[in-house]
Amino acid sequence: MALAFRRVTSAPLAEFDAAAPDGVVIGIVGENGAGKGRLLHLAAEIDQPEFGTVEMSGPARLLGPMDTLDLSPVPVLLIDQTLATQDAFARERAAIALDGLRRGGATVLLVSHEEELLRRLADEVWWLHQGKLAGRGDPAEMLAAYRRHIAERLRAWGSTAQAALEPRVRRGDGRAEVVKLETIGEDGRPTMVWRSGELAMVKVTVRFRAAVTDPVVGMMIRTRIGLNVYGTNTELEKLRLGPCEAGDTLEVAFGFRCELCPQEYTLTVASHDPDGVWHDWLEDALAFSVSDTRYTAGVANLRATASVRRV
């Protein structure tokens, strides 16, 4: 093996055991603190393991994030986010150079957070998690597994974070006030992150300061660049709310399946009369995200299936 880690311990790595052959590009993924940087420093002999050994067939070159992209021949090349700062032309040249290194028998460890880059350049992907090798193998399979892990962590974090009600613009005649806005997940708990496909709910709490005969409460989901994705209101849903008196408080819930692609969105909500006169309008009142275990492009997640028939 051109590069081998034999039961290496050097925090955060713990009894790390993996080997890479000659003529291969190994992509390395993992969250910050998983041990990616330490792994490269051990291979470059900048750090020494507390236990275990690192074996190499020749000298190694380490490139950091701000280093010059030196891809001249070397037995072991260690790239730590260096391509992240390069433009498209430099990346294309790097892809050609890495292929030359591979054919020349070099071993390359490539640390990156860019899935498309790793899918294109890596022959194999190692996934590091809390100092251990969580998985290794085909880039598509490993990147999908890592993406599922991140989606699960993001969803769990979203249930603990508190979304702030911070409208970009707020207007209205003041006869009612939106006092609370929540995005609710399938488990019935508030969350800032929905999973694509889960049952979701937008809950709007409105307090009336004056009598309103026939109030309407509505919502609009937009992308982060302001594209209208979906909107509805209680009038369209044939839900009569009034008449309401001063001091009344209503909690209006809109339930739906969140068939959105993973990205960031905003919620605009309002209380208004049927003729459109606003009581309280909150433009981009709350931000939320959608996560998924697989990549999808666009806004609507149509969950297509693919089939083929030879003719």
Give the helix/strand layout.
Layout: E1 3-10, E2 13-20, E3 24-29, H1 36-43, E4 51-56, E5 60-63, E6 76-80, H2 88-103, E7 107-111, H3 115-121, E8 124-129, E9 132-137, H4 139-158, E10 169-171, E11 176-184, E12 193-195, E13 199-208, E14 216-223, E15 228-233, E16 249-257, E17 263-272, E18 278-291
Parallel strand pairs: 3-7, 3-8, 5-6, 6-7, 12-18
Antiparallel strand pairs: 1-2, 1-4, 8-9, 10-18, 11-13, 13-16, 14-15, 14-17, 17-18
What does this structure look like?
This protein has 311 residues and is α/β, with parallel strands linked by helices. The chain has 2 domains: 156 residues, Rossmann fold (3-Layer(aba) Sandwich); 123 residues, abc- transporter (atp binding component) like domain (Coagulation Factor XIII, Chain A, domain 1, Distorted Sandwich). It is built from 4 helices and 18 strands. The strands form 4 sheets. It has a 6-stranded mixed sheet with strand order 5-6-7-3-8-9, with helices on both faces. Strands 10, 12, 14, 15, 17 and 18 form a 6-stranded mixed sheet that branches. The protein is elongated. The mean pLDDT is 93.
